[in-house]
Write a structure and sequence with these properties.
The complex is a heterodimer of chains A (114) and B (114). Chain A has 114 residues and is an all-beta fold. In chain A, 0% of the residues lie in helices and 50% in strands. Chain A contains no helices and 12 strands. The radius of gyration of chain A is 14 Å and the shape is globular. Chain A starts with a strand and ends with a strand. With 114 residues, chain B is an all-beta fold. In chain B, the strands form 2 sheets. In chain B, strands 2, 4, 5, 6, 9, 10 and 11 form a 7-stranded mixed sheet that branches. Chain B has a 4-stranded antiparallel sheet with strand order 1-3-8-7, with no helix packed on it. In chain B, a hairpin with a 2-residue loop joins strand 5 and strand 6. Classes of the chains: A mainly beta (114), B mainly beta (114). At the A-B interface, strand 5, strand 6 and strand 11 of A face strand 4, strand 5 and strand 10 of B.
């Protein structure tokens, strides 16, 4: 079975601090992509960062970076210098290989406190 | 390019009525996806089109649900004889067929069945 698990339903962080959101997954595939999506309150989902499983180097996009541990099937998101606009639901997702749809985790609600 | 759009944004209907939602993907995208998102959960895949062909349907898509993409552009999702359990956010996404197949999401249609 291909699954994505997010074990932190809610998290909070002080503005300007760093926070890490966890994601684990299960797949028998060896090559796949992993994504973190952000869904702000009442707004549409947008892609934050992507990681290709065959790349050992962790992806980075400005203040967002991932810690990808392929053997452990772990894909965490680190947000540095948190901003109020980072308040949102964050979803970890993957199409795995051969799937045309995304498998999503249940999400982590992040609140940035001023 | 204005992104993926969905109409209506909100729909309230009485149990037993039929409803239809529309999705307009990004113009150059030939893949279109429908997802359902219930409160506190991540999106769940419903169905997928490549051009006008419906290539995959989830078991979540009961006989009361039908989706079309007649000319490979916009898509409609119809729910017949709505039930209270159909209350959810219905998300549409589109993508190209290129590398990573990144999906771009619309704002969603929130359905409330009373």
């Amino acid at each position: 079975a291909q699954t994505v698990t997010q074990s932190q339903p809610e998290m909070s962080v002080q503005e300007a601090e760093t926070v890490t959101l966890s994601c684990t997954y299960d797949t028998s595939e060896s090559n796949y992509y992993l994504f973190w999506y952000k869904q702000p309150p009442s707004r549409q989902m947008i892609l934050v960062i992507r990681q290709e499983a065959y790349k050992q180097q962790n992806a980075t996009e400005n203040r967002f970076s991932v810690n990808f541990q392929k053997a452990a099937k772990s894909f965490s998101l680190k947000i540095s210098d948190s901003q109020l606009g980072d308040t949102a639901m964050y979803f970890c997702a993957s199409p795995f290989t051969g799937a045309n749809n995304l498998f999503f985790g249940t999400g982590t609600r992040l609140t940035v406190i001023p | 390019d204005t992104g993926v759009s969905q109409d209506p944004r909100h729909k309230i209907t009485k149990r037993g009525q039929n409803v239809t939602f529309r999705c307009d993907p990004i113009s150059e995208h030939n893949r279109l996806y429908w997802y359902r998102q219930t409160l506190g959960q991540g999106p769940e895949f419903l169905t997928y089109f490549q051009n006008e062909a419906q290539l995959e349907k989830s078991r979540l898509l009961s006989d009361r649900f039908s989706a079309e993409r007649p000319k490979g552009s916009f898509s409609t999702l119809e729910i017949q004889r709505t039930e209270q359990g159909d209350s959810a956010m219905y998300l549409c996404a589109s993508s190209g067929t290129g590398y990573l197949n990144e999906q771009y999401f619309g704002p969603g249609t929130r359905l409330t069945v009373t």
